[in-house]
Fold:
Amino acid sequence: MISWPNLVSQLFNGLALGALLALISSGLTIIYGTLGVLNLAHGAMFMIGGYAGFVAYQYTGSFTVAVIAGSLFVMLLGVLMERVIIRHFYHRPHEDQLLVTFGLGICFVEVVRLIFSSQSQIVPPPALFQGITNLGFMYYPTYRLAVVGIVAIALSALFLVLYRTRLGMIVRAGIEDSVMVDSLGINVYRVFMVVFGIGAMAAGFAGIINAPVVSLTPGVGDDILVETFVVVVIGGVGSFPGAILGGLIAGEIISITSMFNPGYAYAMLFAAMTLVLVVRPHGLLGVQGRE
Amino acid sequence: MLKQRPYLIETLTAIGLIVAPFVLPHLGFAPNTVNRILVWGLFGLGFDILFGFTGLLSFGQSAFYGTGGFVAAYLLTRAGFGNVLGALIIGMIAAAATGYLVGLIALRRTGIYFAMITVAIAEVFFFVEFNPLSDFTGGENGLPGVPMPSFNLGFTTIHFTDGWSLYQFIALCYFVGVIIALRIVRSPVGAILSAVRDNPLRATAVGHNIHGYKLTAFVIAAAYAGFAGGLLGVLQAFMPPDAFTFDTSGQLVMQTAIGGRGTLFGPLVGAAVWLFLQDFLQAALDLGATWKLVLGVVFVLLVCFLRGGIVGGLADLYRLVSGKRARKDAEAEQQAADAEAARQPAPAPMLAKQVEHPAYSGPILKATGLTKRYGGLVANSDIDFSVNQGELRGIIGPNGAGKSTFFKMLTCEIPPTSGQIVFEGRDITGLRVTEVCQLGLTKSYQVNQLFTGLTVRQNLTIAALAELRGKFRLDLFRKLPGVKGLTEQVEHTLALVNLTGRADTQVAELAYGEKRRLEIGLALATSPRLLLLDEPLAGMSPRERVETVRLLKSIARGRTMIIIDHDMDSLFELVERVTVLQEGRVLLDGTPEEIRTNAAVQEAYLGGVHGEIAA
Structure:
């Protein structure tokens, strides 16, 4: 039944899930905001991050190495994907972009299934964060607390890159008007490649950080992708702060509803999305005029 | 492709469906596989109307497939409902009703937002089916025991059982589905759906309620999905819960893209390829689960290199082979038509829409205190403007004077910050551009806004339909030529803008001057009483200018027009009065002669240099 420790524990779960969703969604949203491409393979990027980290962990036994290797691998994959395929789709209709990224996502999932089979794989949490922590009024798994901290650091890093560097300024300008940025003499296409890499890396990083919480399967990114969409619709497409706010809202909705009945978690999430669409069609922090 | 001899496609479909059971077994298709292909094909007919024809890519069709399927299966297994066809139809209606409600939410946004929302909605349906509603849907067990259809004809009862026997029933359903889909895409609604896909902005501006039409397409797709879902249960004698999964939606999207979108038969072809490859790779090559990877790669390659899918590719090939001769013929015809047009006198101007208030005799348009602010920038400031019936008014002003903003406010494309617009004595401030166009006020755009993927004739048809049918009407089964006055109006507009010889040319292939004339033609085809023209002469060669001025003169009879242009010589020759805008305000108002000699106007354009030179 519902008790205070139970509720607080679910709030923490929601925070951890929300933080992860915020990170993945910011990756999706900055790619869309800058390139105008909605990457339906983003969930697959999340999944591949987990598996790449898993492989690195198998070889080295170090969680830190796994995180770094997983993120870098996905970033490279993102850059490769942008160079080889996505760049040819900038001037094609949105539907084609959706179709091609959707197809790529399926290919990624199936390749991973081919290599690792559908069986779930386990990455243990790092030694430092194993066990449970006594918060005074309740006990809580240490690693989940650590997830909130790690993701907060990652989001801050992303924030610093976006709001305090030259590249970030170009990216934010590109979200406003990429044609103008191009005509100002900045090579937008190189920026696009970097942004796609960073956006994919955000998903891949989240994937390996999340791996110790849930076991890894090739389909682990599918549900995440759907949740990410809801986050982005709630927060506003192309808005970094919107992705963070939307992520936390979605995380808490899923966790708190699950306390009563997990079957209604998505229904509640959807209800929240509908409410936002009715009251503020452009998302809580979205800008009018972006489609 | 769909515009050949009447009933050709229907006949070919019927023949194909009749011949299939005799041919396909030899190609290695089991009857059950063929039946599944037909169910996917039927599912895809509706989806193609939504995606291929209307341009709305939904990743959530499983929601309606599952809804229709489970409603039908529940009626037949748990509720003791005996009539299979009746249950399928009830399932279809349930799916359509669900589609209507979902569409109200999902269609609040377009593009990628729409795609994301449909994904989310479908996922909700999946979870709801599995949990809160599992008492009705059997949860992960599905609903077993769905009966086969049978029909009591009085003297005998026809039972459809397994395999090729059931095929007859499913093939009949598919055939009816094809006939209905063909009627829909050939109806006025079908024409407007392709306009919505091609250029939603212009479809709205010529007076169509595109939200209503999008919702229509969405409901049609949901209805097809619901019926197909019911058939899936009948086919398998079991309603599987995975009808609701995201994979189902994804497979439908991929099959449609593989087969060819916008062709109606693409989904069927895609399903055949999909199921054949699945069987072939799994059974013959023993590749196990790798089949999905192979299909994924095939799909990505097709999206990259063959946008029209298999059917689209075949159509292109056919055109390539048969096209050269046709093009030569067309060129000769065009030259003949041009020569003909040169000899003919200019066609009589088309009459404007009948005036609804004949008693009304004041100014046709009156704007008072019109102001538009963008943050701190004032684009238009306190403009008072009045045009009389039948007047030809010019508007000039330096770049950035706010001329286009002014036009956009008059046609209600953007709302004014303050002020009032009265058209024929009626306050239209705050109305939508669609309604204003329906009242008889429209404009041609400074930058061409055409339906570039369609032919010239289709472009004008879409505009004329708005006037003849109003902003929304569900004549799904009416044939396009059956719309009264449509052919005459389109032909007349074609003649007026001198594009008769190019009527069946794709807009993308037109020369710039021709596109410019079509732009005016689109506005004209809605028979406006007040026509605004935003730089109709922009970018034209001197010869084209002369022709266009003649065109404008001829359409001005019986109609009020306001024209913005920078070409003073042409404009002054054309109009009776000129209003000069500068920095968002009315600088002056007078006859061309007064404007030509006015010092303030020269100052505005030349920045005072004139005065210095004079001194």
